[in-house]
Prior knowledge:
The structure is a single chain. By secondary structure, this protein is mainly alpha-helical. It is built from 18 helices and no strands. It has helices spanning 2-12, 14-21, 25-41, 43-74, 79-93, 96-107, 112-140, 144-164, 182-217, 221-230, 232-243, 248-265, 271-285, 288-299, 302-317, 322-333, 339-343, 346-364. The protein is globular.
Amino acid sequence: MSNHIIMMLIPSMYINLIDFFSLNAAEVGLIFGIVSFCFGVGSLPMSFLYNKYGPKKLIVFSQLGILFSALLVSVSNSVLMFSLSSILLGLFASIHHPVSLTLISETFDKNIAKANAFHGVFGSIGVSLGPLISYFSLLYFSWHYAFIFTAILNAFLLPLSMKFIPNTEKMDIISLNDFKDKKQNSILSIFFLISFVVGLSFTVFNTFIPSVFNLDFGSNANSIVSAIMLTGFLGQILSGYLGDKFDRIKLLSTVFLLLLPLFISIIFVGKILIVIVSVLLAIIMYSIQPLINSIIKDITPLRIRSVVFGLNFFLMFGLSGLAAYIGGLIADNYSFKLIFPIFSLLFPIGVLLLYLLNMKRKVEA
Length: 365
């Protein structure tokens, strides 16, 4: 949950950070893009280390690092210190997803989509709390306090992780020999392109919806966005239920087709409709995660699964940080709302890739 709070802090204070550091939207987008890259890239070594150290040690290490680096961000008053400490925060936060998702896939053989959905609900709560913490901090204190509150939350979660996260049996360290299967690699190549498409769309939604609302609703924007993001848990629950009953690849294709007109509509709608469209976006966007995480279990053996989760997370939240910079350029030259119809072009590409993935699996079966 705390990781998802961290993901939403900079986007929720995007315009405030522009004013505080005297930057433009592209420059803040570049900083967030680099932080997002680190948020993904740190997951790669940890996915390899899962087999050696297990989930408990890695998650506790992550939370200790988040506690320390969030406090560093909170005392930043220069662009350089803010950037470096935020990068450090992103690196420590990146450990969580490949570790926790591998643990889930290892623990739940049946009802994997429901298990991923339950995990995702807490992620949706975190995504909702990010704007709410930002709103509270900006209203009564300053943006610095959003990171202080995040550090305090991790101090609370740390002993809970030490007590309740189970130890797992150690496995042999993964080697390059585990990736010599050409059939497996061709399936994974298509899947990773899908991950990148999902990541770009997630980055656009999470990064720029708060700014769109800031333009329309001013100081009340983050409280509204917080409520909207919370509705994402409905999508998690629905896709968790449907994902254990129907073909997950076809369900994800349907999700992409539903997102296409919603992204396009952002530039055309007024205040009331922007709220309705954004609620639908939150529900449908967050229905993706239980599906894509469950598809990973469908296409990978346990031995390499932590690495695939790590690469998936790197593409979804690391490399896709490029969207934050490109979106910032679009906002500087045109508007925040135009970002969404431009990036809607991703969804037809995603549908095509899912079709190819489905065909490839049938051929290799």
